[in-house]
Design a protein that fits this description.
This protein is an alpha+beta fold and 255 residues long. The chain has nine helices and nine strands.
Length: 255
């Protein structure tokens, strides 16, 4: 058997996130669409193969899943589902602004939407109402998906991320895996690939990015957009312990 990034580190992280049998019987979109919250396997994420994720290569996020979340989390949008398209238009505009306004500014604006700091005139008499892309009060209302080989195309540039973590259809975390069997290769190579290649040639992919991860299986580092590689930090055990103690980590049930 030949050891590759895909069948070693990428598979290792997928199994940590989704359980060791995630790739044996992967869910299709119909199965995964109605499952929300943290599940009981792995770290609670659901693995969805790239072919089952509803998006085109030129789409940063999965619009059908984002639309479903908007309707699920916002009563004013549930009353008139076509309002979800107005929000999607705003989000697409942020992605398109990356080339003109810069990645950092676009990411800051998308982050404001993620934090619930933006509103739309969906209330009575055009009153502005806060729009939620994520539910921070009840984490079980969010959908947590992992997919692999996330192909993204921007003009002539095309890149394929090893693993991407999506919440409500939004790719918030990118993981770049490197081979564990070559001493000359380390997490640094993955971080450089993200920082100097992906963010440079397909910056749209990082419009809603929270952070990226690079690892060769021995050391794991993470950093936010445009962070110099030397400043990428280790994932500390106390961070993981805090995550597992966060309220709202309930076992999900299909709707």
């Amino acid at each position: 058997m030949t050891f590759t990034e895909s069948n070693t580190i990428e598979a290792y992280f997928r199994d940590l996130l989704c359980g060791a049998t995630a790739n044996d019987n992967p869910l299709d979109l119909q199965d995964a669409r109605g499952i929300y919250g943290v599940v009981s396997k792995g770290a609670g994420w659901i693995y969805l193969p790239p072919a089952a994720l509803p998006r085109a290569p030129q789409d940063v996020f999965s619009e059908p899943l984002v639309r479903a979340a908007l309707i699920r989390l916002n009563p004013c949008i549930a009353e008139r589902p076509e309002r979800a398209d107005e929000v999607l238009y705003k989000l697409r505009a942020i992605v398109l602004s990356v080339r003109s306004d810069g990645l950092i500014r676009a990411n800051e604006e998308f982050t404001a939407w993620l934090r619930g700091e933006r509103s739309m005139p969906f209330g009575n008499d055009g009153e502005h109402v806060t729009v939620r892309l994520l539910d921070f009060d009840d984490l079980a209302q969010n959908q947590y998906l992992v997919t692999s080989q996330y192909l993204f195309r921007a003009g002539p540039a095309e890149r394929r991320a090893d693993l991407v973590l999506l919440i409500n259809g939004l790719p918030l975390v990118l993981i770049e895996a490197k081979t564990p069997v070559r001493p000359s290769v380390s997490w640094v190579d993955g971080a450089i690939q993200v920082h100097t290649d992906y963010e440079q040639f397909v910056p749209e992919l990082f419009a809603c990015n929270v952070f990226s991860v690079a690892s060769e299986g021995k050391e794991l580092r993470y950093g936010s957009i445009r962070m110099p590689v030397q400043l990428w930090g280790p994932w500390r055990p106390e961070d993981e312990a805090e995550q597992h103690s966060t309220p709202g980590r309930n076992r999900s049930t299909p709707n």
